[in-house]
Amino acid sequence: MVSKRILVTGGAGFLGSHLCERLLRSGCHVLCMDSFLTGSHANVASFLAHRNFALITHDIAQPLPAGMEVDEIYNLACPASPPHYQADPLHTVKTSVYGAIHLLELAQRCGARILQASTSEVYGDPEVSPQTEAYWGHVNPLGPRACYDEGKRCAETLFFDFHRRHGVAIKVARIFNTYGPRMQPDDGRVVSNFIVQALRGDSLTVYGDGSQTRSFCYVDDLIEGLLALMASPLEVTGPINLGNPTELSMCELADRVLTLTGACTAVDFRPLPQDDPRQRRPDITRAKHVLGWEPTVPLSVGLEKTVDYFRQLLSATSTTSVDGVVQVMREEGAS
Ligand code: NAD
Ligand code: UDP
Fold first, then answer.
1. Tally: H helices and E strands in the chain
2. What ligand has the least distance to the C-alpha of 223?
């Protein structure tokens, strides 16, 4: 049987590296394309020796290398943490919009299926809860988050226009907050921030009064959802919400992290960033019915695995670089 050739953009990032690993395990040929803006060489170093793995350093906002032939494309390339995507907002928009066009043209030429890693941010600061795919969202198009939110919304538009005009086989996943091992310690998102701060004995930085909510999905669950969506019948285009509906406030998350780590550090309340969504919870009815998918890892279990990961990483990085340690942990099989 000939194995599929799969392009994973953003494959050296948090989600992308887990996806590459999972695809390699199932016998696929994986071509990882990444600009290393927020991704890390350590995340993919142990795949390099695999005969089915190839790495291209490339920015998807630029025209793609000529002559690529693939069967499936997962487009995960885009900084996902607010401080990272706001650092160069114009490039964030170009990544989502030019990147989508380049990859959709490749899919059209190759007759490949293409999956877009969209986001719950397309719902903005939602006025309804939980959020269903039918909700059109409440996004400030002028604010500091807009480069990400509107870029991702435009990418969805491009996916559906390529589908209608050119018959491209598209899949759009709206991913809700996902966490787990292999997030960067300086990523800036809340789960990694709280865990790293607790393990270092620093105060936990809670933005605003901490009453805003999120619903966190463990990375292994999310990856299975992406695979199920890619494998779904052609007529399933999405958008489909992928996330864990268990909702909690940022103060509750801080308490959970303090309990799990055994840290007795203080909580440092900081100003709430502009346009920070007040609440977020996915309605995953569609994913359950159409894909037969739902998350299986409870927050307590996923957080414990993530704490273990960062504990190992930080104790080793007191003497060496983060990249070196992540690579060694990957080679030793720590997920
Ligand atoms: P990440 O920052 O760890 O990974 C993003 C990867 O994309 C990095 O390896 C980065 O170097 C690469 N990249 C960025 N811009 C690029 C460009 N122009 N060309 C090539 N590579 C580029 O983030 P993540 O959490 O792994 O997110 C992966 C994808 O999933 C993103 O598209 C993100 O928007 C989406 N998503 C993630 C979450 C989440 O909670 N993790 C939620 C919603 C959506
Ligand atoms: N947050 C926080 N402390 C931090 C980082 C984030 O309280 O150190 C808050 C942030 O304001 C938001 C929530 O945690 O309300 C989730 O933030 P994250 O950046 O992880 O994801 P997003 O806002 O994109 O959902």
1. 11, 13
2. 1
